[in-house]
């Protein structure tokens, strides 16, 4: 079970969302009490950037990304790429581009999603920043994009966030140099593929995250998720791998620091 001396990094959260407005300070107290030493705040569309930035002023342990989520493609305009680029160059606390990717579970506009994905991947490569990848029911399409960029030597590094694929898909993303991040869904009893992935992922290539406020882990399933709950993700992975809580906390922390150049 959790060990309060272990430090953990929640490598993906969205605490800017309004359902944290009432108690954000208390949420921060709880993550600190659970050993969460750094958080990476993901961005889903550009209008969030000023609020996320001021949150980074408020919480010293927070770093963030800038990007446009595939389901927010309608927020992409002629200025968006330069907005993202300027935001990334303007603040050293921007450590990634994203959350970007493909989602064919909730939408079918593949060509529109690709049209906002490619410029973001190119920007990440240009700025030497990793990408945070949202990929849902779109592993085949995502792998094609990365394989093509890889052939041309211009694929950014990054993480497959909130992993929900199978071992075969995971190996293909790993072969392309990506990290795999496990979220609250690894604690779900019927998540057999995710359990198998957590067991087989190389020690140097996995991260942990909450994706707060979504996907609360057991025993908080159905409630608002928050960064302190990342300990349940660490717990479950340590159970699956037969390694101690502190080993999983330490490895995932080291991996997140390496990928995102975190403090």
From TrEMBL:
Organism: Prochlorococcus marinus (strain NATL2A)
InterPro entries reported for this sequence: Deacylase_DTD3 (IPR033665), Metal_Hydrolase (IPR032466), TatD-like (IPR001130), TatD/YcfH-like (IPR015991)
Alphabetized Gene3D superfamilies for the sequence: Metal-dependent hydrolases
Cofactor note (record): Binds 2 divalent metal cations per subunit.
Residues the record lists as binding a divalent metal cation 1: 12, 14, 99, 211
Cofactor entry: a divalent metal cation
Molecular function as annotated in GO: D-tyrosyl-tRNA(Tyr) deacylase activity; DNA nuclease activity; metal ion binding
Source taxonomy: Bacteria, Bacillati, Cyanobacteriota, Cyanophyceae, Synechococcales
Annotated function: Catalyzes the hydrolysis of D-tyrosyl-tRNA(Tyr).
Known EC number: 3.1.1.96
Protein name per UniProt: D-aminoacyl-tRNA deacylase
Binding site for a divalent metal cation 2: 99, 134, 161
GO BP, sorted A to Z: D-amino acid catabolic process
UniProt key word Hydrolase: yes
